[in-house]
Amino acid sequence: MTEVQLQEFKLDPDSELRFEVESKNEKVVLEVKSGYAELFGTELVKGKPYEFHTGAKVAVFTWHGCTIELRGKTEVSYVAKETPMIVYLNVHAALEQQRVAAEQENTRGPVTMIVGPADVGKSTLSRILLNYAVRMGRRPIYVDLDVGQGQISVPGTIGALLVERPASIEEGFSQQAPLVYHFGHTSPSDNIELYNTIVSRLAEVITEKCETNKKAASSGVIINTCGWIKNAGYKVLTHAAQAFEVDVILVLDNERLYNELKRDMPKFVKVVYLPKSGGVVERSGTQRAEARDARIREYFYGKRTPYYPHSFDVKFSDLKIYKVGAPSLPDSCMPLGMRAEDALTRLVAVWGGRALQHRLLAVSFAAEPDDHVLHSNLAGFVCVTAVDMERQTLTVLSPQPRPLPNTILLLSELQYMDNH
Ligand code: ADP
């Protein structure tokens, strides 16, 4: 039997406690004993226990000093005095000024895009800036273009959320009525044409939303991006900047990217270089895959608040499954007026079969396989847990009870083994 480890840390003002939970099935409980502390911009309640599970990499920051207790086995735990939090707070203050001006002049608030290589804290900075904005009474929009991790919905999608309250410490931002678009892969490089198409579409829809929601419009947008920043990845980023008509680009920890953007962006776009936090943890390919898996499990089963998904059979003949992207032919073989790239956003029918085992299927709001499918947002996802060739049926795990809506399903490359 292992005994529960108890650690107490006294933090000076402007410092943070960093810890990681690595061992399988381990749980660490954190409690603020005295003073004030926040986790990636969300205030912690004194005396309230917060749970962290395997894979968690956490920093609890204090502006005023505090005492924190940790119960359970942490892999690493230390107090760091050097953090970039004051710089991040200054960024928030500058954005806040622009929001005040936008509110007064009835214009759009700052659209901010956060870029940088993998594992520099882009998602974390997005969370901090959104939390600070919402704590000031703003209602910013969070856009996540990182198909590799997929903080909104599941990996393989891009999406947006209206942030109305700070992220919950254990569960992140509330995922009520997110706008989600299907991509189906974990890197934009798998289908750049499709990626750019859905990014443009999401930008359009957000512009429309802002026209009817003045509060959101003046609060602005925070856009998180993928860590793919070189060559074609750079083009994908500049396309997103154009599509969303960004005002500010925050570049984390990459001088080359900063200089390229300074050179290529129009003058009215403010490009700002920011240091990364020494606490940000690099993740291996396996850890990324595990994080993706955990994200999908959370989608179906919940995190702290448990969800109870349904499982039922569907006949192959009742399904309309499509994948996006036909094999590309050279331009010379294409019908007149069509580009080879057009094939990459074409829908191709997929028949029921063993290959669907463990795959995620996006449930589109579109009823017919026409041009609107890629422009329609998603109702959600189901996962194929079994394929019965004899009975010609699939068993699906679904957040909603049967039947599946009679709409188009889009095949994702992502897989999930349901052994809950
Ligand atoms: P990116 O979005 O650039 O890939 P993330 O924001 O996801 O990077 O950060 C990578 C990991 O580092 C996450 O698990 C996050 O919780 C952790 N992390 C971020 N900032 C800190 C910090 N100051 N101390 C400890 N861990 C951190």
UniProtKB/TrEMBL annotation:
Gene Ontology molecular-function annotations: ATP binding; polynucleotide 5'-hydroxyl-kinase activity
Annotated binding of ATP, by residue: E16, K57, D119, V120, G121, K122, S123, T124
Domain (Clp1 N-terminal): residue spans on this chain: 10-101
UniProt xrefs under Pfam families: Clp1 (PF06807), CLP1_N (PF16573), CLP1_P (PF16575)
Localisation per UniProt entry: Nucleus
Residues in Clp1 C-terminal domain copies: 308-418
Keyword Nucleotide-binding applies: yes
Keyword Nucleus: yes
GO biological process, one term: mRNA 3'-end processing
Alphabetical keyword list: ATP-binding, mRNA processing, Nucleotide-binding, Nucleus
GO annotation, cellular component aspect: mRNA cleavage factor complex
Chain ranges of the Clp1 P-loop domain: 116-302
InterPro entries for the chain: Clp1, Clp1/Grc3, Clp1_C, Clp1_C_sf, Clp1_N, Clp1_N_sf, CLP1_P, P-loop_NTPase
Family: Belongs to the Clp1 family. Clp1 subfamily.
Protein's job: Required for endonucleolytic cleavage during polyadenylation-dependent pre-mRNA 3'-end formation.
Protein name per the record: Protein CLP1 homolog
Record organism: Bombyx mandarina
Gene: LOC114251203
